[in-house]
Amino acid sequence: MALFNFRREAPATPGVNPEVEALLRGYSIEVMPRTAEKVDDFRPLLPRGTRVYIAHIEGTLIEDMVATARRLHAEGYVVMPHFPARIIKSREQLADWIARYQGEADVRQALLLGGGVSTPAGEFDSSMQMIETGLFDGFDRLHVAGHPEGNKDIDADGSDRMVMQALTWKQAFSERTDAQMAIATQFCFEADPVIAWADRLAAEGIALPIHIGVAGPAKLQTLIKFAIACGVGPSLRVLQKRAMDVTKLLLPYEPTEFLGALAAHKARHPGFGIEAVHFFPLGGIKTNATWAIDHGGASGQPAHSSEKG
Q1: CB 147 within 8 Å of CB 186
Q2: How far is the first Cα of the chain from the last one, in angstroms, to the nearest whole number?
């Protein structure tokens, strides 16, 4: 089943790092209903066909989620709403959400994740349980969560044993479903740990493409707040080190160095598991979208094929 099949290479944009431009081709970005409301029209900001995730935070009404999906679909974007297992009360509620998204916004893609809630609201505790319902059969694309720096909510002992077991299960599922699958990760700030994590997944036989989470340009204080709240671990030291540098303290953070290192590694190792970039626009959607355009993010669609073999 083919979702996209873009094989042509777009010409490099003058003044842009061609390796970064290649990695940014086909990037995705995340919004919430309340942040999307602040944007009058996404079309001047995001290339047509951009995948836009809609984050479902606990307490957000499904009506607001579906309205945001409907609007983005009408403006020409591929919509991928979050389905956080622990805030969904029942199989019936999950089926209702899916029916609303598909009926009102033609949604055929979903990000399935446990969610940041410690106590489940109902029968679901993990994305695997939602997958096993069969309700997502017929979706074109399913993404699952990835944690390059571990997840203490899942592995309280600081290991990644349970996370790796879950990814192994999801790899096996990907081999028996027609849906395209990928791992969408939490945002990180340091390239070396991400590279080591991606290489480890490959060594463990987990071949799901990785869409690496990247924090968009933002004030340093904002990033540190979100990083702590989201449990970002070792790479937080990059921000802490920056905070110690008086010359950089007041300057906004930009992911140039992080993406540059990943892009250079990808150029040297074409088979490297990171397939695409997923932006968390912590400093604002317009700021993030402008940064992406300035660094080649508007130059073309993905060079990779997302065709099911």
Answers
A1: yes
A2: 8
Q: Nearest-5° angle of CA 186, CA 231, CA 221?
A: 95
Q: Token digits for 246? A: 């008086």
DSSP output for 81-146 = EEEEGGG---HHHHHHHHHHHHHHH---EEEEE--S-SS-SSS--SHHHHHHTTTTTT-SEEEEEE
Fold of 2-307: TIM Barrel (3.20.20)
Q: Is 15 helix (H, G, I), strand (E, B) or coil?
A: coil
pLDDT tens series, the chain, 309 aa: 333 333 344 455 667 899 999 999 999 999 999 999 999 999 999 999 999 999 999 999 999 999 999 999 999 999 999 999 999 999 999 999 999 999 999 999 999 999 878 799 999 999 999 999 999 999 999 999 998 875 555 544 555 677 889 999 999 999 999 999 999 998 888 899 999 999 999 999 999 999 999 999 988 777 777 656 555 555 556 655 655 554 455 568 899 999 999 999 999 999 999 999 999 999 999 999 999 999 999 865 554 444 443
Q: What is the pTM of this model?
A: 0.87
Q: What is the DSSP letter of 12?
A: P
φ, ψ at 158 (rounded to 5°):
90, -5
Q: What is d(CA 39, CA 37) in angstroms, rounded to the nearest whole number?
A: 5
DSSP letter string, 138-174: T-SEEEEEE-TT--TTT-TTS--HHHHHHHHHHHHHH
